Every structure is written in structure tokens, then in C-alpha cells.
């Protein structure tokens, strides 16, 4: 096996070494996937803790986590369409979580669990902002002019 290549780009098939093709330059899909998974885990952990703050949004939150996990699972360095989907979903998530965080800061008393809930919402906005940035860099890097 070629020792100069990272293990991510090497796999064994039938006892023979096979080198997979490297992802495109400026590919940040793996970073975006990790951010999506981190955001999904925060929502999953927070749902039971903050169910009284979510009320009608519990089912929507659960569906959102499922969608985030599915989209993260489809991340592929060769699919521009998936990268565009990541860009769109992370944009929507930033808009949703930041708007909701601003609403919480202006309408609820920020003490105890309320403060923790508002901070978690703001953290999710930051996570998806970073996912938006890295997905935008990936889409830009996949454009024909960037090659």
C-alpha cells in the first residue's frame, strides 16, 4: 500500500491495494457533514430538556433532525447537487435558528433553563453558519471557473 497517501484514500479489495480518487480541490463536505451531525445531536439532546419551550415544534424538530441526518449521509465529493442542497439547507437553518434566537432574546426572561435554551439556539445558528460557509466554499470550488 502506498504509505504517502492518507488512509482515507486507500482501501483494500481482494487483498490488493486500491487507491480511491481524491476529492476536488476546495472540498469541505466532510467538515460540513460534521457540523450537520453536531447540530443534529444538539437538537436531539435538547428536545427532551426543552420540550416545554418547543410545544408544537417537537414533531417539527424531530423531522428536522431526521432530514439533517439524511442530508449529511448523502454528502459526496463528486455530487455538486448534494453540495448545493447542503448550501440551501444550511442557509435555511441559519435563518431559522438565528431568527428564533433573536425572538427568544427579546421575548423570554433569560434566566435558568430559558437562558440555556436561548444559548443552545444561538449555538445552532453558529454551527449552521459555519456549515453555510464551508458548503459555499465547496460549491465555489466545484464551479468550472475554479478548476
The CA-CA distance between the termini, in Å, is 29 Å
| Widest sheet, order of strands | 1-2
- β-strand number: 2
Sheet with the most strands? 2 strands, antiparallel
Low-confidence stretches: 1-13
Give the total of domains: 1
Averaged pLDDT: 84
Q: Looking at the structure, what is the overall shape?
A: elongated
Q: What structural class do helix, strand and pairing data support? A: mainly alpha
Number of helical segments? 5
Share in helix: 55-70%
Radius of gyration: 19 Å
Order of SSEs, N→C? EEHHHHH
Beta-strand portion reads 5-15%
Question: What descriptive keywords fit this protein?
Answer:
mainly alpha, two-stranded antiparallel sheet, 5 helices, 67% helix, 5% strand, disordered N terminus
What's this, in brief?
With 147 residues, the chain is mostly helical. It has helices at residues 29-49, 51-54, 58-73, 80-107, 113-142, and strands spanning 10-13, 16-19. The chain has one domain (24-146).
Describe this structure in words.
- The protein is mainly alpha-helical.
- The protein has one domain (24-146).
- It contains 5 helices and 2 strands.
- A hairpin with a 2-residue loop joins strand 1 and strand 2 (16-19).
- The radius of gyration is 19 Å and the shape is elongated.
- It starts with 9 loop residues before the first strand and ends in a 5-residue tail after the last helix.
